[in-house]
Amino acid sequence: MKNICRAILLLSCLSATVCAQEQAPKLLREAAHCLAAKEQDWLGLRSSTATVLSLGYLDDTKSYPGEEVLYVVDYTGHGRTEGLVFTIFLTRQDRRRIFDIQNNAKVVRSKEGIEGVDFVEPPLGGTGTQEDLVAAIKRIERQPRFELRVKDLLRPSDLTQCESYADRK
Length: 169
Description:
- The structure is a single chain.
- The chain is an alpha+beta fold.
- It has helices at residues 2-20, 26-37, 127-141, 150-153; strands at residues 52-60, 68-75, 82-93, 96-114, 117-121, 146-149, 160-164.
- The protein has one domain (24-168).
- It contains four helices and seven strands, in the order H-H-E-E-E-E-E-H-E-H-E.
- Strands 1, 2, 3, 4, 5, 6 and 7 form a seven-stranded mixed β-sheet that branches.
- 25% of the residues are buried.
- Residues 2-21 have low confidence and may be disordered.
């Protein structure tokens, strides 16, 4: 009887864990779609065999008064040791949300750099931009990561418009 109770308890714990896993918020899914589907291949998916991405994000409405900024980190290393970080400005036009990718960088955790973050490929904008990105990364690290399937990110979205500074070159 004890073994049956243990088995039931174990199964209920496992099912609670599965149910407790958070799905990626819509805002993150839409931003990741723009990073995956743009011609610039921001996430390097064309040369990758990745089927799942590990992402973290921060929705910031305070750093730039009157602006909504989304910081997204695509973790490419184990334990959040390296990744790609993006700054995306959000606006609305009618029912459509516009994701404007304004900056990107490749980072690694290191004793060098700013607060343990070293920029392998630095962002545009210099030290001030790097400090903003490090602050966002630090906040993102305290939040859950979300796993998104690459094939789901490549589907077009009628309510999402993707833009970037690279489009204007």
